[in-house]
Amino acid sequence: MKITILGAGNIGSTLGKKWLEAGHPVAFGVRDMHSPKVQRLRSEIGEGAKIGSIESALALGEAVLFSVPWSAVPQIAAAHAEALDGKILIDATNNFASPEINNLASLKRSAPVGKIYRAFNSLGWEVFAEARIGGSQVDHFYCGADGPARLQLEELIRQVGLRPIWVGGLERVELVDNLGALWVELAIRRGLGRRLAFKLLGA
Description:
alpha/beta; Rossmann fold; two-stranded antiparallel ribbon; 40% helix
């Protein structure tokens, strides 16, 4: 699968490197080609992935990960609506200071035929970099419509090293968002550290 990653921060670069290792063509779309983040990413991946404008990256991808700042998504989605519609769109952005933590509404408006998912928003990038803690595989909870696109997303989650746990369609997004808020509370505010994750156990 051809993957577009919007953003060159810790989340996007970590996931992009994992998917490159799994054999996917990856294109990074960035707003400032000269930023320190972009230069660091370029030095880490070499010629392994394309790094260019948002427009050029979107032209290549079948799945699009939004890992830019939360506030940038509505403008990007509106400006590139035609390029986004019909693709697998993954919202990994958060704004825990807002009543609307995710960007699903913006993505739905701009890409009504897009296959939209909420994932990679509830754990720190350090967990994505190494998805086993204390010998246990980390579980990753996500939501979005059932169907072939969901199975493709699950494979991308597995290739990061995580076990995918589907909690339902986008109407269940509060469950996923609340896990992100819980992670921030425990890892950051309570000082338990960023190598913190969740595990589903059952008989």
